[in-house]
């Protein structure tokens, strides 16, 4: 028995692990974990399960040496890879956009757009936005306001009508007033100016959102998923104000909370982590999140 164990230990090859191997293992584990988390949060999860079934079927065919099936599988692999890229195109684009928004190298790849990064907009603009939102909420007037950050929203700005007016509560209220030409769609705010109205935004396909939410809320979450903007939504049905950042939505915030968030936003870049901390603080205070 001892000889058998000794022979086994002699044959057993234990590779020498260096610090570079450990770094590689950590990087690969980190990438695989984030890929799996990303897949589980998208429609790709269902498609991945289908791919696993097909892969198991191919392994079964290989074991039984089913040559015709293996030949067909081999010929369709290259086509299948292209098909997967086409099928996952929206998810891949969203993943790359989110990767580009992560501050992994502390702004190494951040390019200036010519705007002053000290303050994004004035405190007066923040106050005008807050006043307009709660005036519209009191009148049950629906509104969708997108506050631009680092990512320029020109792509969505082009879908609307140019306004280029200084942000005031009166202007915002007039834009979203019922039966006016500009009330349908979103307003985009850049700095201290309303740059466009009636803009079309992408709808979120997040299955975890409340099914009772309407198109306005889904559009607000949708634009926050693909850009770093902050979106303010005023419900036409309830008059309540909500905020969306990074795909996260918080319902029914009060004027002070919105004012504090805008004040924080105008001085520095808002991120999802800080938004979640703020969201948790509101929840602790007993507010509906």
From TrEMBL:
Keyword annotations of the record: ATP-binding, Cell membrane, Membrane, Nucleotide-binding, Nucleotidyltransferase, Transferase, Transmembrane, Transmembrane helix
Catalytic activity: 2 ATP = 3',3'-c-di-AMP + 2 diphosphate
Keyword Transmembrane in record: yes
Membrane-spanning ranges: 12-33, 45-63, 69-88
Keyword Transmembrane set for record: yes
Domain DAC span(s) in chain numbering: 89-255
Biological process annotations from GO: cAMP biosynthetic process
Enzyme class: transferase
The protein's Enzyme Commission number: 2.7.7.85
Record PROSITE patterns: DAC
Family membership: Belongs to the adenylate cyclase family. DacA/CdaA subfamily.
Database matches in HAMAP family: DacA (MF_01499)
Role of this protein: Catalyzes the condensation of 2 ATP molecules into cyclic di-AMP (c-di-AMP), a second messenger used to regulate differing processes in different bacteria.
Protein name: Diadenylate cyclase
